[in-house]
Design brief:
heterodimer; A: three-stranded antiparallel β-sheet; 4 helices; 6 strands; 39% helix; rod-shaped; B: alpha+beta; three-stranded antiparallel β-sheet; 8 helices; elongated
């Protein structure tokens, strides 16, 4: 009888073990079709990545300062200065608002991303990179050419906007997101338009 | 039914059946029953598969990392102040051989720029202040088909081998009257074309000298560092491949 009882206990233990082993092994070997990733960690990662500028335009702009004055057909002042200066314009996404990751309940391999608007994050003039071509006549004061450099910055920003720096920034952000989510096992990543717009951009 | 029979056969079978149903449902819905990290079984999670990543990133073909808007001043950008024009003339008068053998590349460029300016009527004397500004747009980046990813130390270290950067495109922009804040000089269309051709043929090496390729490589490195940050690797190292012979040379302008 004791042998029979022992056998029954052993059978029971074996069955319990098998009943747990089958699904556990299935889970461990990845039989599920959806990517088993932690969306929270993915979101943190995407946020930290997109906080960086995603595109950079470098300008080598030319500044010309010319000033002349005359009295009774005689020039009393005539000075000219020509120099180049390097301006860096960097754009990225404003992650403070508008960023959302929305998993698709019906398809675990699909995710919707709402991106915030791109904006200019940084404009720097590299004064070490100034190259003077010529100076004619009286010298210009430091404040005069510093003011001229300051005037170049908004010009560079405006030019960068015209050349599509914001669109390029958004495009690069999408590339990064596709890389991160694609590598995490998602096969369909759809970008939702910013708030107020309609439709889905794939 | 005896309790022993129930415990030995029926209960395990019911448990097995429930789990089987859950597994089937899990398969149909396409999502796991629960996530492994939630169970605390896996402490270190890789959220990035390098193979999948490579597949994704190579679809892009090229990664354009830098746009360089370079305003070039003719003739001053080609008149190196360290070059002495009188010495060039003396050497050409007294030397024996071709211009190529008698002058350095900088001196040849100086001579060509000065000759063109004189021919077009642009004043190049000691007190000269006549110039033309031409906007050159250069795009530089990396050829993503050649990126290499390698994991080491059982997948703890990632080595990213970046392809050499290259100039993808160079183009010259026509000057617009409302966007040209410099003194105007009298030039006919043919003279303008000659200046544009002169700049086109010489600007590539100048952009490389000014560090466009280094800036493009740095931009690429920033891009991939951002992509791999928090990806679960203990360290991500970059290996920059030097430009192949000839690949650092920019393409000819449009």
């Amino acid at each position: 009888m004791n042998v029979g009882k022992g056998r029954a206990k052993l059978d029971f233990a074996l069955l319990c073990f098998l009943s747990l082993l089958v699904p556990a092994s299935a889970l461990l070997t990845g039989c599920s079709r959806g990517p088993a990733v932690d969306m929270g960690s993915l979101e943190t990662r995407v946020r930290s990545v997109l906080e960086l500028p995603t595109v950079e335009y470098v300008y080598r702009d030319i500044v010309y300062l010319g000033s002349s004055r005359s009295f009774l057909f005689f020039k009393t002042l005539d000075k000219k200065l020509l120099f180049s200066v390097r301006i860096r314009v960097r754009a990225g996404l404003d992650m403070k608002e508008g960023f959302r990751i929305i998993p698709d309940d019906m398809n675990p391999r699909r995710v919707y991303i709402r991106l915030p608007a791109s904006r200019i994050l940084q404009v720097d003039a590299d004064e070490k990179g100034i190259h003077q071509y010529f100076q004619r006549g009286e010298r210009f004061g430091r404040l005069e050419y510093s003011a001229a450099i300051e005037e170049v910055k908004p010009r560079a920003v405006e030019d960068a906007r015209k050349r599509g720096i914001l669109e390029k920034s958004e495009e690069n952000a999408k590339t990064l997101i596709r890389g991160i989510f694609g590598a995490a096992g998602f096969t369909r990543i759809d970008f939702l338009p910013p708030r107020g717009e309609e439709g889905i951009r794939g | 039914m005896k309790i022993r029979t129930f415990l030995t056969w029926v209960l395990p079978l019911i448990l097995l059946l429930i789990l089987a149903i859950l597994l089937v449902l899990s398969g149909i819905l396409g999502r796991p029953l629960f996530s492994l990290p939630a169970l605390g079984l896996v402490r270190e999670e890789k959220v990035l598969s390098t193979d999948l990543f490579l597949e994704e990133i190579r679809k892009l073909e090229t990664l354009h990392t830098l746009e360089y808007v370079h305003k070039t001043v003719f003739p001053f950008d080609f008149l190196d102040p360290a070059v002495d024009y009188r010495r060039i003339i003396d050497r050409l008068r007294t030397g024996v051989g071709s211009t190529q053998s008698l002058l350095t590349p900088r001196e040849r460029e100086y001579l060509a720029a000065r000759n063109l300016a004189v021919r077009l009527g642009v004043n190049v004397g000691d007190d000269a202040a006549e110039f033309v500004v031409v906007t050159v747009i250069a795009r530089a980046g990396l050829d993503l088909a050649r990126i290499g990813l390698e994991t080491r130390d059982n997948g703890r270290r990632l080595l990213v081998s970046l392809p050499p950067p290259r100039i993808l495109e160079i183009s010259l922009e026509d000057a617009k009257p409302d966007d040209y804040p410099y003194p105007d000089i009298k030039l006919n269309p043919a003279a303008w074309r000659d200046i544009a051709e002169f700049i086109e043929s010489r600007i590539g090496p100048r952009l490389v000298e000014e560090g466009i390729l280094e800036a493009a490589a740095a931009g690429g490195e920033d891009f991939f560092r951002a992509l791999f940050s928090r990806s679960g690797f203990h360290s991500v190292e970059f290996l920059r491949r030097p430009p192949d012979h000839g690949t650092g040379d920019p393409p000819s302008a449009d």
